[in-house]
Amino acid sequence: MLAFPSPAHAEFERASEVRQAAPVSLVPCGFFRYSVRESQFAAYNHCGTTTVRVHVDVRGGGSTNDYHLCVSPGRTQLPGAGPNYLNAYYIGGAGCRSGEHTGHTPH
To answer: Are 78 and 42 in contact (CB under 8 A)?
Structure first.
């Protein structure tokens, strides 16, 4: 788990929609969790140059809670609390529309 010592910024706010944040070189590519004070968050850092689709594994409910999300280059904050997420991983879909959220389908 990564902890950022800086105070929470607008890009770290909890929201019902996905927020895009600027790329941060200290953040690994792919899924990661981090804490700000007592709050835990989850995000996906896309290190490529195009939008791509990722599969987001959500805790509980099996694959019925999982979804696919189109992310832009850089860090994408996943909505809600970090412990709700098990993983997020690349599944293709280069050139998709950033922020597009679809239900889980086999891939």
So the answer is: yes
The pairing of beta strand 30-36 with beta strand 52-58: unpaired
- Single out the residue of 41, 37, 32 nearest to residue 14, CA to CA: 41
pLDDT digits (tens, 9 = 90+) for 64-73: 889 999 999 9
- List the chain residues with pLDDT less than 50: 1-17, 22-24
Minimal CA–CA distance to 28: which of 80, 93, 86, 89? 89
In the chain, what is the greatest distance between 2 CA atoms, to the nearest angstrom?
39
* Helical residues (DSSP H) of the chain, grouped into ranges: none
